[in-house]
DNA sequence: TTGACAGGTAGGCAGCCTCCTACGTATCTT
DNA sequence: AAGATACGTAGGAGGCTGCCTACCTGTCAA
């Protein structure tokens, strides 16, 4: 669908998933985010760059801080990508249910 | 949640996403799947192994063929992972709507 | 049983990813 | 103006990925 469905690649790293999870509680500056990891701050910055390039976060400058914020659009696209598969696994559940019903006879 | 949320890593490859998309139409043997790609069949086999290890597909032997089938569970987990973010982007939409309403005054 | 077919595995190579430290730049404080 | 703070970027090392060709195993057909 969209040009950069590299959202998957961006979220393939546990570190970056953790970053997005932290941003669920609201926008945060880099040092705040970096404090949750044992790796160096520049490495966290690099991960943030990947998330930025995927459109998953945006930055907003505030003095010498850069406040990172979660961006909804790519996640919505991910959800849409998942849609055809949702139908698939709901069928699975339906099949299971009819199977159980038959056993109840 | 689950031990192997490497579902993201498995889906990070466009080739593997294409494979799962092909399997949406139903189970298929390896050669059938491989015929949709320009890369060698062994490479497709390797991609299938990654999908297998992530639990995204299962194989069922039928004579000398191995029929691959999509597995629903990891996709459901992916959907569940997405849930908190869904709330997030719905709020975004709500904010946008109230903003538009205010403009209508 | 011998050959053809389906598909996995081994081994190797090239490119990418992730981490590091060192350094550069902009902003705030004093 | 000088130092401290917040952050990005450069460059490099090591490991992982993705592709290839060659080869192996198991099954079917003649």
UniProtKB/TrEMBL annotation, chains A, B:
Residue stretches spanning the membrane: none
Ranges where the HTH arsR-type domain occurs: 1-90
CDD domains named in the record: HTH_ARSR
Domain of life: Bacteria
Entry-linked Gene3D superfamilies: Winged helix-like DNA-binding domain superfamily/Winged helix DNA-binding domain (1.10.10.10)
Pfam families: HTH_5
Protein name: Metalloregulator ArsR/SmtB family transcription factor
Native organism taxonomy: Bacteria, Bacillati, Actinomycetota, Actinomycetes, Streptosporangiales
């Amino acid at each position: 669908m969209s040009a950069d469905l590299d959202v998957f690649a961006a979220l393939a790293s546990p570190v970056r998933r953790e970053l997005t999870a932290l941003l669920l509680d609201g926008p945060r500056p880099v040092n705040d985010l970096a404090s949750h990891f044992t790796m160096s701050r520049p490495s966290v910055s690099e991960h943030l760059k990947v998330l930025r390039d995927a459109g998953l976060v945006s930055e907003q400058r505030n003095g010498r801080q850069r406040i990172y914020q979660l961006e909804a659009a790519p996640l919505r696209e991910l959800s849409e990508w998942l849609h055809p598969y949702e139908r698939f696994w709901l069928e699975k559940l339906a099949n299971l249910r009819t199977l159980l019903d038959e056993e109840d006879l």
